[in-house]
Design brief:
alpha/beta, Rossmann fold, 5-stranded parallel β-sheet
Length: 190
């Protein structure tokens, strides 16, 4: 019986996890990084390290537009790294420059959850600025409807997260990653 060893066909380019808040990017990302002997990086954590303040504080002071500018710079920087698994913020795909950087520099995995499952996972979390509304469940559905086309556009793989445990999901993801052709080398012409 074959063990779940890291696929040898993977390049050192980043594996980028995209998807809505609550889809499991951090949990899956950490487990995937361990399996592949890579470093796990969370773009929101990196923003907080660089600024010294919380994401909520940035939203309060600079608004979503200010936060997205910071996020774009961090993603551009992180996409230059090698041998990482990168969990992006749920809204990172909104900006075309982020989608372009992700597509050009790595393998992108969309962890796709249903609005109901996402709501179940985030309903008690007060650290998510976009859900601090009178109806967080409706807001999640609205965000998913707006963002799903971007997630789908940028994704090399789409992995449903609803009905499986993390270990099963990561094993399935490793198998699917092994089947992907290696990314094309990055050229400086563009």
């Amino acid at each position: 019986m074959q063990t779940d060893s890291p696929p040898s066909s993977l390049s050192a380019a980043p594996i980028v996890l995209v998807g809505m808040m609550g889809c499991g990017k951090t949990t899956v990302g950490k487990c995937l990084a361990r399996q592949l002997n890579r470093t796990f990086v969370d773009s929101d954590d990196e923003i907080q390290k660089r600024t010294g303040v919380s994401i909520t504080h940035i939203f309060d002071v600079e608004g979503e537009a200010g936060f997205r500018q910071r996020e774009a710079q961090v993603i551009a920087d992180l996409m230059q790294m090698r041998d990482i698994v990168l969990a992006t913020g749920g809204g990172a795909v909104i900006l075309e420059e982020n989608r372009r950087a992700m597509r050009r520099g790595g393998t992108v995995v969309y962890l796709k959850g249903s609005a109901y499952d996402l709501w179940q996972r985030t309903r008690h979390d007060r650290s998510r600025p976009l859900l601090q509304t009178a109806d967080p469940r409706a807001r999640l559905q609205q965000l998913l409807t707006e963002r799903d086309p971007f997630y789908t556009e940028v994704a090399d793989l789409i992995v449903p997260t609803s009905r499986q445990g993390v270990q099963t999901l990561v094993a399935d993801l490793l198998h699917k990653l092994a089947e992907l052709p290696p990314p094309a080398p990055i050229t400086q012409a563009n």
